[in-house]
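On clarity, I found the account of how folds are encoded harder to follow than it need be. For illustration, here is how one protein appears when written out as sequence plus C-alpha coordinates:

:::
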Amino acid sequence: MDESDEDPRLPHHRNPQEFVSLDRLAELGVLYWHLNPKDYENDEELRRIREARGYNYMDLLDLCPEKVDNYEEKLKNFYTEHIHADEEIRYCLEGSGYFDVRDKDDRWIRIWIKAGDLIILPAGIYHRFTLDTKNYTKLMRLFVGEPVWSAYNRPQEKHPARKEYIKSLTEKVGMTLEAH
Protein backbone atom coordinates (compact mmCIF):
# COMPACT_ATOMS: atom_id res chain seq x y z
CA MET A 1 0.00 0.00 0.00
CA ASP A 2 1.26 3.48 -0.79
CA GLU A 3 1.59 6.08 1.94
CA SER A 4 -0.46 8.87 0.34
CA ASP A 5 -3.05 10.87 2.27
CA GLU A 6 -5.64 10.59 -0.48
CA ASP A 7 -9.15 9.31 0.28
CA PRO A 8 -8.62 6.11 2.33
CA ARG A 9 -11.44 4.43 0.37
CA LEU A 10 -9.25 4.31 -2.75
CA PRO A 11 -7.09 1.21 -3.48
CA HIS A 12 -3.73 2.95 -2.72
CA HIS A 13 -1.59 0.63 -4.83
CA ARG A 14 2.14 1.22 -4.89
CA ASN A 15 3.68 2.11 -8.22
CA PRO A 16 4.53 -0.38 -9.59
CA GLN A 17 1.78 -2.47 -8.02
CA GLU A 18 2.81 -5.12 -5.49
CA PHE A 19 0.58 -7.98 -4.45
CA VAL A 20 0.92 -10.01 -1.26
CA SER A 21 0.28 -13.75 -1.16
CA LEU A 22 -1.94 -15.50 1.37
CA ASP A 23 1.23 -17.25 2.60
CA ARG A 24 2.84 -13.90 3.37
CA LEU A 25 -0.27 -12.81 5.26
CA ALA A 26 -0.24 -16.11 7.16
CA GLU A 27 3.36 -15.37 8.22
CA LEU A 28 1.93 -12.28 9.94
CA GLY A 29 -0.77 -14.40 11.58
CA VAL A 30 -3.52 -13.17 9.24
CA LEU A 31 -5.77 -16.06 8.19
CA TYR A 32 -8.13 -16.13 5.23
CA TRP A 33 -10.91 -18.32 3.86
CA HIS A 34 -13.29 -17.87 0.96
CA LEU A 35 -16.77 -19.16 1.82
CA ASN A 36 -20.28 -19.01 0.40
CA PRO A 37 -21.86 -15.81 1.75
CA LYS A 38 -25.28 -16.64 0.29
CA ASP A 39 -25.70 -19.67 2.59
CA TYR A 40 -23.73 -18.71 5.71
CA GLU A 41 -26.43 -20.06 8.02
CA ASN A 42 -25.91 -23.61 6.66
CA ASP A 43 -22.21 -23.44 5.70
CA GLU A 44 -20.42 -26.51 7.05
CA GLU A 45 -16.98 -25.01 6.56
CA LEU A 46 -17.95 -21.91 8.56
CA ARG A 47 -19.37 -24.18 11.27
CA ARG A 48 -16.07 -26.14 11.40
CA ILE A 49 -14.01 -22.94 11.63
CA ARG A 50 -16.23 -21.56 14.40
CA GLU A 51 -16.10 -24.84 16.31
CA ALA A 52 -12.33 -25.33 15.94
CA ARG A 53 -11.55 -21.78 17.03
CA GLY A 54 -14.23 -21.46 19.73
CA TYR A 55 -16.24 -18.66 18.06
CA ASN A 56 -19.52 -19.02 19.89
CA TYR A 57 -20.86 -15.46 19.49
CA MET A 58 -21.94 -13.94 16.18
CA ASP A 59 -23.62 -10.76 15.06
CA LEU A 60 -24.16 -8.91 11.78
CA LEU A 61 -23.23 -5.34 10.98
CA ASP A 62 -24.37 -3.25 8.02
CA LEU A 63 -21.90 -0.43 7.38
CA CYS A 64 -23.24 2.35 5.16
CA PRO A 65 -24.22 6.00 5.61
CA GLU A 66 -27.94 5.15 5.75
CA LYS A 67 -27.68 2.58 8.55
CA VAL A 68 -24.93 3.85 10.87
CA ASP A 69 -25.36 6.84 13.16
CA ASN A 70 -22.37 9.18 13.06
CA TYR A 71 -21.12 7.27 10.01
CA GLU A 72 -18.16 9.54 9.16
CA GLU A 73 -16.98 9.58 12.79
CA LYS A 74 -17.25 5.78 13.07
CA LEU A 75 -15.28 5.28 9.86
CA LYS A 76 -12.62 7.67 11.13
CA ASN A 77 -12.37 5.62 14.35
CA PHE A 78 -12.12 2.34 12.41
CA TYR A 79 -9.33 3.88 10.29
CA THR A 80 -7.27 4.92 13.32
CA GLU A 81 -4.39 2.46 13.70
CA HIS A 82 -5.00 0.17 16.67
CA ILE A 83 -4.71 -3.31 18.17
CA HIS A 84 -7.10 -5.56 20.08
CA ALA A 85 -6.42 -7.94 22.96
CA ASP A 86 -8.34 -10.62 21.03
CA GLU A 87 -8.52 -11.76 17.43
CA GLU A 88 -10.63 -9.72 15.05
CA ILE A 89 -12.79 -12.01 12.94
CA ARG A 90 -14.80 -10.57 10.06
CA TYR A 91 -16.75 -12.39 7.36
CA CYS A 92 -17.89 -10.21 4.47
CA LEU A 93 -21.39 -11.21 3.39
CA GLU A 94 -22.08 -8.31 1.01
CA GLY A 95 -20.22 -5.29 -0.32
CA SER A 96 -16.51 -4.69 0.26
CA GLY A 97 -13.91 -2.80 2.24
CA TYR A 98 -10.25 -2.68 3.21
CA PHE A 99 -8.33 -4.02 6.18
CA ASP A 100 -4.84 -2.58 6.42
CA VAL A 101 -2.26 -4.48 8.49
CA ARG A 102 1.37 -3.72 9.31
CA ASP A 103 4.04 -6.08 8.03
CA LYS A 104 7.26 -7.00 9.85
CA ASP A 105 8.92 -3.84 8.47
CA ASP A 106 6.04 -1.65 9.71
CA ARG A 107 4.71 -1.03 6.18
CA TRP A 108 1.02 -1.18 5.39
CA ILE A 109 -0.46 -4.11 3.51
CA ARG A 110 -3.95 -3.41 2.15
CA ILE A 111 -6.38 -6.35 2.08
CA TRP A 112 -9.49 -5.86 -0.03
CA ILE A 113 -12.30 -8.00 1.33
CA LYS A 114 -15.38 -8.80 -0.73
CA ALA A 115 -18.43 -11.01 -0.30
CA GLY A 116 -17.29 -14.48 0.77
CA ASP A 117 -14.00 -13.42 2.37
CA LEU A 118 -13.47 -14.41 6.01
CA ILE A 119 -10.42 -12.83 7.61
CA ILE A 120 -8.89 -13.32 11.05
CA LEU A 121 -6.46 -10.74 12.37
CA PRO A 122 -4.37 -11.93 15.32
CA ALA A 123 -4.52 -10.15 18.66
CA GLY A 124 -1.81 -7.49 18.87
CA ILE A 125 -1.41 -6.75 15.14
CA TYR A 126 -1.60 -3.09 14.18
CA HIS A 127 -4.47 -2.63 11.77
CA ARG A 128 -7.29 -0.37 10.59
CA PHE A 129 -10.43 -0.66 8.46
CA THR A 130 -12.28 1.44 5.92
CA LEU A 131 -14.94 0.92 3.32
CA ASP A 132 -14.08 1.29 -0.34
CA THR A 133 -15.77 3.82 -2.64
CA LYS A 134 -19.01 1.78 -2.74
CA ASN A 135 -19.59 2.79 0.91
CA TYR A 136 -21.28 -0.48 1.84
CA THR A 137 -20.47 -3.76 3.49
CA LYS A 138 -22.38 -6.29 5.55
CA LEU A 139 -20.07 -8.09 7.95
CA MET A 140 -20.45 -11.02 10.29
CA ARG A 141 -18.45 -10.50 13.45
CA LEU A 142 -17.35 -13.56 15.41
CA PHE A 143 -16.04 -13.73 18.96
CA VAL A 144 -14.93 -16.21 21.60
CA GLY A 145 -17.36 -15.65 24.47
CA GLU A 146 -18.92 -12.24 24.94
CA PRO A 147 -18.07 -9.64 22.29
CA VAL A 148 -15.24 -7.25 23.10
CA TRP A 149 -14.72 -4.16 20.95
CA SER A 150 -11.89 -2.51 22.89
CA ALA A 151 -9.42 -0.86 20.52
CA TYR A 152 -6.04 0.35 21.76
CA ASN A 153 -4.63 3.06 19.51
CA ARG A 154 -0.97 3.03 18.56
CA PRO A 155 1.51 3.08 20.27
CA GLN A 156 0.85 -0.07 22.31
CA GLU A 157 4.26 -1.74 22.47
CA LYS A 158 3.82 -2.55 26.17
CA HIS A 159 0.32 -4.05 25.78
CA PRO A 160 0.40 -7.80 26.59
CA ALA A 161 -1.34 -8.70 23.30
CA ARG A 162 1.21 -6.70 21.31
CA LYS A 163 4.12 -8.29 23.16
CA GLU A 164 2.68 -11.76 22.53
CA TYR A 165 2.14 -10.97 18.86
CA ILE A 166 5.74 -9.78 18.42
CA LYS A 167 6.94 -12.91 20.22
CA SER A 168 4.87 -15.10 17.88
CA LEU A 169 6.49 -13.46 14.85
CA THR A 170 9.99 -14.06 16.12
CA GLU A 171 9.27 -17.64 17.24
CA LYS A 172 7.16 -18.50 14.16
CA VAL A 173 4.39 -20.01 16.26
CA GLY A 174 2.09 -22.21 14.14
CA MET A 175 -1.68 -21.94 13.96
CA THR A 176 -3.93 -24.85 14.90
CA LEU A 177 -6.14 -24.39 11.82
CA GLU A 178 -4.70 -23.58 8.45
CA ALA A 179 -6.38 -21.04 6.26
CA HIS A 180 -6.74 -21.53 2.53
